[in-house]
Amino acid sequence: MEILKPSIDHIFNIRSSAEFKQLSLAVFRYQASENEVYNNYLKTLKIDSDSILELEQIPFLPIEFFKTHKIVTSSKQPTLTSEIFTSSGTSGIIQSKHYVSDITIYEKSYRKGFEYFYGNIEEYCILALLPSYLEREGSSLVYMTNDLIDRSRYPQSGFYLHNYEELISVLKQLEQKKRRTILLGVTYALLDLIENKNFELKNTLIMETGGMKGKRKEMVREELHAVLCQGFGVDMIHSEYGMTELLSQAYSKGNGIFNCPPWMKVMIRDTNDPFSFLSHNKSGGINVIDLANINSCSFIATQDLGKLFFDDSFEVLGRFDNSDIRGCNLLIQ
What we know:
Blueprint: H1 8-11, H2 17-34, H3 36-44, E1 61-62, H4 65-68, E2 83-86, E3 97-100, H5 103-118, E4 125-129, H6 131-134, H7 140-151, E5 158-159, H8 164-176, E6 181-185, H9 187-196, E7 204-208, H10 221-232, E8 238-241, E9 250-252, E10 257-259, E11 264-270, E12 273-277, E13 283-290, E14 299-308, E15 314-319
Parallel strand pairs: 1-14, 4-5, 4-6, 6-7, 7-8
Antiparallel strand pairs: 2-3, 8-9, 9-10, 10-15, 11-12, 11-13, 13-14, 14-15
Helix pairs in contact: 2-3, 9-10
């Protein structure tokens, strides 16, 4: 018997933790029935989906499956709104592929997510410094950023590849006019920029997406953010936590502490027992529930290490030693 697909509108209008739990269990049963790969995974674990009554009982699909399988829920044929996102990675590393059967869900997720944390996108000038992402195809971050740029009402919004002098000039103009600005950049490019010039930014928010991409030596977050704060003349560095395999992002407004939008949740699993979860303030593997992944898999066991706090905010501590280094937005510590 086919299980009805939960409503997309319901997913993006969650009002409480009880509602999130109820909808997550509904999405789980839908995907357990209609996602062939996830269904086979549950069968291997001898899991009866009807017996799952709590979030902690849901088996999370290891993120590595996105490298070896086509993770899709429902057998419907691709449409004009289909998209395939791929992870970045060095030569020889297998890329993850996220088959997005309805790109409008991704658009709704990042638009509502940005609005939830920062307000109306039209009120910001968006400057993007993402050279390593622009130089390849299939980046979900570039797709999102390009759309946010298009929705910004400022003509200066755009991508700045290696033209640092132009970017410096634009930042100066925007500061003089006291325009609300977001400079979104891959970590090594932001460091390159402040080597060209020191700033005193009062109206610009610096948001790093993580990753040295082999261009620089990795730095612990505290050291990195201290350098960026000094170079840009700001008090806090914001961060975005997202990945190819997810259609939602968590954001940090400082100190590396991230918060999720209402349709996304982080849980911390025991590194020695992937089916057990840890209490608050204990380090373990990051599991993510992303209900925007309604058409792929909403329950992902990542290769990231983190810690969850009592208010459901979380910190990213690094990644498992045996995992591939790829374009996931985090800092190795």
